[in-house]
Backbone:
C-alpha cells in the first residue's frame, strides 16, 4: 500500500497579508477587552478601598477624592487605546490609506502628462527623432574606430655593454640608478615578458606591472604571474596591452627580436664586463636608430651610458 502524504495548502502572498492583518486585529481587540476589564475592576477596587475602608480619604484634589482623579486619568488612557483600535482603524485604516495613495498617484500622473505636453510643445517629436538620427550617424564612425584593435608596439628593453654583455650569474654587473628609474617609468602599467631566471632574480613582484614568465617547465608555478611556455603565448597573453615589454634574459631577447617593433637599449661604455648572457646583435639593415641620449659618469654612475631607441624599418 502506498501512503498518501497530506499536502500543505499553499497561501499566496496576498492571502498571507490579509491573514496577518486579521491576526494583528484580533490581538489588538483582545488587549482592548483586557484593558477594559482591568479598568472596571481596578476602578471598583479603588472606590471600595476609599469609601468602605476609608483608605486615602484625606487625599483630595480640589475637593475630589483621589480615586476619582485616578479613574479619570485611567479612563483617558483607555479612550486612547479604544480610539487606536476602533476609531482610527475604522476611519483611517488600510482602505483609507489605499485611497490616499491612489489620489497621489493620479495627481502625479496628471502632473507628468502636463510636463509631457510642455516638452512636446518646446521640442516637437519629429525634430527630436531627426536630431537622434543625426546624432547616431555622427557617432557611428567614432564607434567603429573604437572597435578597431589598437596596434601593439612590442618593445624590448635592456642594458648591455659595448660587447652586448647583459650580466653574469643572473645579475647585472653595473649599477645605474638613472637607468633603473627609466626602466620603471617606461614599463609601469604594462605587461613585462621575461624568462624564469629573470623572474626569480626579483626580490618581489614589480609593482603596477603584469608579469608574464616563459618557461619550458610545464609544472612551473609563479605566484602573482602568468606562466606560459612560448614567446607566442606570452604575446597572446599581453594582447590587450598596446606596449608590452620584453625584459630578458638573453634567450628571451633572442626569441623576441623577431617580434619586436622597438628596442630601448641602454649602452654601457668604458667597461670590460665578464658576462654569461648577451643581448643579440642589432642588424642596422632591419633597425633604424631614431634617438640617442648620452649620460656621463658621475658620483652615482661609475660608467657613462647612452639611451638608444631603435625602431624596425
Residues:
Amino acid at each position: 500500500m502506498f501512503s498518501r502524504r497530506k499536502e500543505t495548502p499553499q497561501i499566496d502572498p496576498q492571502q498571507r497579508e490579509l491573514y496577518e492583518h486579521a491576526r494583528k486585529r484580533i490581538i489588538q481587540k483582545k488587549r482592548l477587552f483586557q484593558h477594559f476589564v482591568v479598568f472596571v475592576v481596578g476602578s471598583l477596587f479603588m472606590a471600595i478601598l476609599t469609601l468602605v475602608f476609608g483608605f486615602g480619604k484625606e487625599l483630595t484634589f480640589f475637593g475630589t477624592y483621589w480615586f476619582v482623579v485616578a479613574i479619570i486619568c485611567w479612563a483617558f488612557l483607555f479612550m486612547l487605546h479604544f480610539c487606536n483600535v476602533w476609531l482610527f482603524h475604522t476611519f483611517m485604516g488600510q482602505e483609507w490609506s489605499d485611497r490616499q495613495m491612489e489620489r497621489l498617484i493620479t495627481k502625479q500622473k496628471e502632473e507628468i502628462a502636463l510636463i509631457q505636453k510642455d516638452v512636446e510643445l518646446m521640442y516637437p517629436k519629429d525634430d527630436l527623432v531627426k536630431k537622434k538620427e543625426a546624432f547616431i550617424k555622427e557617432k557611428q564612425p567614432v564607434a567603429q574606430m573604437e572597435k578597431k584593435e589598437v596596434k601593439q608596439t612590442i618593445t624590448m628593453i635592456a642594458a648591455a655593454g659595448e660587447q652586448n654583455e647583459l650580466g653574469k650569474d643572473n645579475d647585472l654587473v653595473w649599477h645605474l640608478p638613472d637607468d633603473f628609474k627609466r626602466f620603471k617609468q617606461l614599463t609601469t602599467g604594462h605587461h613585462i615578458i621575461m624568462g624564469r631566471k629573470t623572474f626569480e632574480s626579483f626580490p618581489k613582484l614589480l609593482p603596477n606591472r603584469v608579469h608574464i614568465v616563459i618557461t619550458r617547465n610545464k609544472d612551473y608555478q609563479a605566484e602573482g604571474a602568468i606562466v606560459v611556455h612560448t614567446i607566442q603565448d606570452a604575446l597572446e597573453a599581453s594582447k590587450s596591452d598596446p606596449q608590452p615589454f620584453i625584459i630578458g634574459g638573453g634567450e628571451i631577447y633572442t626569441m623576441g627580436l623577431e617580434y619586436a617593433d622597438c628596442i630601448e637599449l641602454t649602452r654601457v661604455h668604458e667597461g670590460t664586463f665578464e658576462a654569461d648572457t648577451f643581448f643579440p646583435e642589432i642588424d642596422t639593415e632591419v633597425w633604424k636608430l631614431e634617438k640617442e641620449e648620452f649620460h656621463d659618469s658621475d658620483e652615482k654612475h661609475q660608467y657613462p651610458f647612452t639611451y638608444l631607441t631603435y625602431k624596425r624599418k
Notes: Helices lie at 13-51, 66-91, 94-122, 125-147, 177-187, 196-200, 231-237, 250-256. The first helix runs from residue 13 to 51. Residues 1-8 have pLDDT under 50 and may be disordered.
